[in-house]
């Protein structure tokens, strides 16, 4: 998961491959609570591993449920030993983050069972309305107090004086989670038939269908009368099904369905036109989640989609996509993806009946309108609709704009706007706070990068003389950007060490070349890993340095290491430091920094470094050695040390590392046009 302040997505060209999606959030938290309320042990397979499910699991542990994580060594398999309908531990303070699928149903269940509970969350959760659910529960005689603003969490729950002799009325036009919460809680106290009457038009009916489907699996057969009245039969009692499987998340599937619709697959460019761009495993058109109907909307826009027993295959059909006018009440979360797909349509797209967007993780109508405009779209927003006219079409449209997308701590904003990287103008899209996807899909960007092909991978080169600080600067910049890092200067030393460990003589050019081609090297933070082992200190010995000098004379080894260095250029990007990164290895790099400092400053840095390691040194000798090395490096016949013609010169003699990092990041932002 990317934990950087932002993530820059380069222009994407195509997509091809298979993705395995995480489990459904809607199903996962419902199943966890149902298992907690049932008798016996329930083994849950393919549970979503995310922020929302983690806060639910922690809450259930606090309430006295048995929770076994990672059953059988499988991270997504969890076993819950339930309370059997009995009251949980009498006192608990539950922190539920921004998980509405935990806050609403736990409020209802704890209110009818009774105890001494406080439920709170992050500041945004305290802005998400819960008053209609609390009003309905108070009709039952539940004791619930607001400890902040009326109508919003945090809440304090006490002992109820239950009254079940009249139907419970609940509004259905704000959030379907209020009705879901009552449906999950009331079987606990259904000594007689319990009726729930929905006031107003029920929104997001497919989510209620998920609830009813799962209640059936746990032994509760709710009767429904035209979405207006729901009856929980007298004597209802939760029974564990023993085992249950969570479907892959249909809302998360929407991004990859859209991805397939936006991109011709790589194989199609080779003449294999019947190959799908994207295959999604673990989900079919027969899924119980309402957001699976996103497929219908994507088809209306031109996507070609086929469904197997447990997979979907998606390819590009109509291009540009077709503009649509759609009532999205049945797919409120997935409809956000349609708003970004509208950027690629042949006219104005209108998404209607989405008032529930206003009370989600953020005001999603306002958020989507603001961010779509940044990209160049014309947007009209209303209380319950959004209308998007894309930037002017054309392969090189200048109406598209590079944009830094604010994500409002909303996972779906971050994920759906990643699709804007397919824009025809080839502009960069920056996603702010990419870690917010952890709410439902922690590995979203890694999964995206595994199936897309960029027009080019961005590379930042940092070249310069010995002891200029290029390694420290490059690794810090890579860390800030979430890019990969290449310390090219260590590769000959790593090859020498790998050869010694493998019993390969330093004079065996052929064997050394084969080693260099497949050198298992990684750079993590300040560490250099060889085959997973930290060899940062091992490669700095005088002995290994001698080996590096010996093997560097072999042209085939140099060629193999050149190829190896270029292989480090992977999404989302690379920062490479060395002496010929910008001139030889990555001459097309969009940003080249030539880092230098005067010889006295560099000598002082090297002196302090050696002294800190207990190695004696003389400052004047170090300076003389650096100056001699500069002369040798700049006058050698092969790849001499010099600044690339288009490099930005940075003299850091009087700069802190933080100032140098800020300078490079500023240059990078300018290059991107942000």
Topology:
Layout: E1 6-9, E2 12-15, E3 17-20, H1 25-37, E4 41-45, H2 51-62, E5 66-68, E6 78-81, E7 91-95, H3 100-113, E8 116-120, H4 131-139, E9 144-146, E10 155-157, E11 168-171, H5 176-185, E12 194-199, H6 205-217, E13 223-225, E14 229-232, E15 243-245, H7 250-262, E16 278-281, H8 294-301, E17 304-307, E18 311-315, E19 325-327, H9 335-341, E20 349-352, H10 364-374, E21 378-381, E22 385-389, E23 403-405, H11 411-417, E24 429-432, H12 444-451, E25 452-454, E26 459-463, H13 470-481, E27 484-487, H14 491-502, H15 509-517, E28 521-524, E29 527-530, E30 533-534, H16 542-551, H17 555-566, E31 574-578, H18 581-585, E32 591-596, H19 599-612, H20 619-635, E33 648-651, H21 657-672
Parallel strand pairs: 3-16, 4-15, 7-8, 11-12, 19-20, 23-24, 26-31, 26-32, 27-31, 32-33
Antiparallel strand pairs: 1-24, 2-25, 4-6, 5-6, 8-10, 9-10, 12-14, 13-14, 16-18, 17-18, 20-22, 21-22, 28-29, 29-30
Helix pairs in contact: 1-2, 1-3, 1-6, 3-5, 5-6, 9-11, 13-21, 14-15, 14-16, 15-17, 19-20
Which structural class matches the secondary elements?
A: alpha/beta
Q: Which homologous superfamily in CATH is the superfamily of the largest domain? A: Enolpyruvate transferase domain
Largest sheet, in brief, is:
5 strands, parallel
Give me the number of helical elements. Answer: 21
Helix content: 25-40%
**Biggest sheet: strand arrangement:** 27-31-26-32-33
Q: What is the total domain count? A: 4
Proportion of strand residues:
15-25%
Low-pLDDT stretches are 266-272
Mean pLDDT: 92
Tell how many strands the DSSP assignment holds: 33
First-to-last CA distance: 24 Å
Could you name the CATH topology of the largest domain?
A: UDP-n-acetylglucosamine1-carboxyvinyl-transferase, Chain
CATH architecture of the largest domain: Alpha-beta prism
Tell the overall outline.
Answer: elongated
Name of the CATH first level of the largest domain: Alpha Beta
Tell me the Rg in angstroms. 30 Å
């Amino acid at each position: 998961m990317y934990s950087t302040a932002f993530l820059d997505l380069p222009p994407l060209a195509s997509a091809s491959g298979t993705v395995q999606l995480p489990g459904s959030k809607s199903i996962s938290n419902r199943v966890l609570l149902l298992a907690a309320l049932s008798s016996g042990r329930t083994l849950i397979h393919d549970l979503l591993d995310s922020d929302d499910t983690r806060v639910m699991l922690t809450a259930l542990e606090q309430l006295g449920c048995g929770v076994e994580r990672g059953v059988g060594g499988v991270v997504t398999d969890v076993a819950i030993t339930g309370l059997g309908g009995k009251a949980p531990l009498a006192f608990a303070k539950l922190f539920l983050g921004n998980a509405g699928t935990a806050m609403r149903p736990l409020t209802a269940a704890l209110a009818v069972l009774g105890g001494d509970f406080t439920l709170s969350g992050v500041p945004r959760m305290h802005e998400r309305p819960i008053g209609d659910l609390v009003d309905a529960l108070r009709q039952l005689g539940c004791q619930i107090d607001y400890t902040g603003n009326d109508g919003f969490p945090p809440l304090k729950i006490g002992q109820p004086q239950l009254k079940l002799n009249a139907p419970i009325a609940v509004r259905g036009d704000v959030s379907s989670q209020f009705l879901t919460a009552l449906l999950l809680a009331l079987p606990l106290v259904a000594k007689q038939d319990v009726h729930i009457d929905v006031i107003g038009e029920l929104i997001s009916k497919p989510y209620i269908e998920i609830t009813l489907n799962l209640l059936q699996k746990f032994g509760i057969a709710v009767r429904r009368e035209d979405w207006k009245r729901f009856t929980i039969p007298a004597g209802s009692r939760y029974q564990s099904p023993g085992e249950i499987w969570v479907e892959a998340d249909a809302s998360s599937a929407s991004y990859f369905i859209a991805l397939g619709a936006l991109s011709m697959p790589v194989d199609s460019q080779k003449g294999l036109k019947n190959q799908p761009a994207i295959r999604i495993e673990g989900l079919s058109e027969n899924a119980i989640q309402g957001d699976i109907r996103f497929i219908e909307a994507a088809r209306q826009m031109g996507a070609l989609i086929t469904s197997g027993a447990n997979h979907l295959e998606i390819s590009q059909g109509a291009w540009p996509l077709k503009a649509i006018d759609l009532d999205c009440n049945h797919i409120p979360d997935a409809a956000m993806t349609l708003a970004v797909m509208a950027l690629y349509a042949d006219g104005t797209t209108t998404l209607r009946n989405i008032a529930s967007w206003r009370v989600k993780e953020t005001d999603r109508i306002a958020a989507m309108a603001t961010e779509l405009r940044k990209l160049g779209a014309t947007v009209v927003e209303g209380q319950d609709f959004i209308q998007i006219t894309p930037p002017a079409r054309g392969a090189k449209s200048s109406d598209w704009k590079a944009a830094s997308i604010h994500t409002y701590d909303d996972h779906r904003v971050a994920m759906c706007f990643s699709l804007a990287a397919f824009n025809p103008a080839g502009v960069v899209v920056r996603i702010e706070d990419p870690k917010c996807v952890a709410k439902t899909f922690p590995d979203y960007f890694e999964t995206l990068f595994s199936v897309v092909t960029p027009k080019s991978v961005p590379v930042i080169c940092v070249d310069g003389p010995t002891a200029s600080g290029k390694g420290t600067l490059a690794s810090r910049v890579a860390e800030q950007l979430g890019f990969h890092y290449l310390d090219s200067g260590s590769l000959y030393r790593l090859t020498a060490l790998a050869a010694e460990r493998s019993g390969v003589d330093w004079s065996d050019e052929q064997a050394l070349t084969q080693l260099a081609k497949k050198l298992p090297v990684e750079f993590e933070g300040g560490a250099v890993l060889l085959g997973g082992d930290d060899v940062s200190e091992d490669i700095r010995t005088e002995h290994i340095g001698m080996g590096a000098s010996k093997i560097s004379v072999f042209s085939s080894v140099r060629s193999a290491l050149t190829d190896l260095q270029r292989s480090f250029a992977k999404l989302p990007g690379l920062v490479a430091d060395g002496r010929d990164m910008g001139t030889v290895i990555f001459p097309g790099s969009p940003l080249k920094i030539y880092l230098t400092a005067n010889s006295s400053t560099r000598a002082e840095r090297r002196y302090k470094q050696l002294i800190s390691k207990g190695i004696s040194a003389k400052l004047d000798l170090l300076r003389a050695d650096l100056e001699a090395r500069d002369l040798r490096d700049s006058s050698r016949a092969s790849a001499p040390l010099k600044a690339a013609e288009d490099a930005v010169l940075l003299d850091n003699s009087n700069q802190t590392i933080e100032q140098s990092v800020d300078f490079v990041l500023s240059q990078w932002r300018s290059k991107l046009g942000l």
